[in-house]
Design a protein that fits this description.
Elements: H1 4-14, E1 61-67, H2 74-90, E2 97-103, H3 114-119, H4 122-126, H5 151-155, H6 158-163, E3 167-171, H7 172-186, H8 190-199, E4 206-208, H9 211-220, E5 224-227
Helix pairs in contact: 1-7, 7-8
Length: 229
């Protein structure tokens, strides 16, 4: 009998990454109590997944921005706006802010670089147009800023957000779907496809077992929950 996880991964490879028009409705996660100071947490029993990011959720203010859809990059814009507005209202420096973005479901595509978007036609599959609205997008809208761009434009990219101390987590299950897509299209072994997929992740993005795990772990680290879609 096929396991639920295997069925889910199969669905990711055949549906989620293909940008199908009909997909399951997305229900907001149940919000855990707001913890200003996270309780001690069990240590990982293996080094399979990088959990070191939790040690960086140390700001006075902590929030997890859950992005199950691309949604025009809403998670990133809301996270940066939150930091800016706490500075405006409370005078909080950036060092007191711990924003965490979780890219899962279709939102995971924002974790992949321009090469992946172009080679695997992400814009076409997700029905996303370029800035002029004439052609399918071939670049990740949050992947980079043009050369010589102003500081605000750089801040509103995933690399800029990470460079400023932000944490970006990505769903390992959806990553597995990307690996399957690469293996099928390139006609290569899964191990080679996994290596290629990892090379196409935006540097600094941290894979987690899946997106739900990442959101809940961020809440356990003290983050308030925000659905950014």
């Amino acid at each position: 009998m096929t396991s639920p996880r295997r069925r889910f991964l199969s669905w990711l490879g055949s549906a989620s990454l293909l940008g199908v028009a009909s997909r399951p409705s997305l229900v907001p996660l149940t919000r855990l109590p707001d913890h200003r100071d996270a309780s001690p947490h069990d240590a990982p029993i293996a080094e399979t997944w990088d959990m070191s990011w939790t040690s960086r959720v140390t700001g006075k203010y902590k929030a997890a921005f859950d992005s199950p859809e691309v949604a025009g990059g809403a998670a990133l814009y809301r996270a940066t706006a939150w930091c800016d507005q706490y500075k405006e209202v409370y005078g909080a420096p950036r060092t007191e802010m711990s924003p965490v973005i979780v890219l899962r479901h279709l939102g995971f595509m924002l974790a992949m670089n321009d090469a992946f978007w172009s080679e695997y036609e992400v814009g076409k599959r997700l029905k996303m147009r370029d800035d002029r609205g004439r052609k399918w997008a071939t670049t990740n809208p949050l992947g980079s800023a043009p050369a010589g761009a102003k500081a605000d434009a750089v801040a509103n990219t995933i690399p800029g957000f990470i460079a400023a101390g932000g944490i970006v987590l990505a769903c390992g299950w959806t990553f597995g779907g990307a690996v399957s897509q690469i293996a099928a299209r390139d006609k290569i072994e899964r191990a080679a496809a996994d290596t290629k997929a990892r090379s196409m992740l935006i540097p600094g993005v941290i894979l987690q077992p899946n997106g739900i795990f990442a959101v809940l772990r961020a809440q356990e680290a003290g983050c308030s929950y925000v659905l950014a879609s």
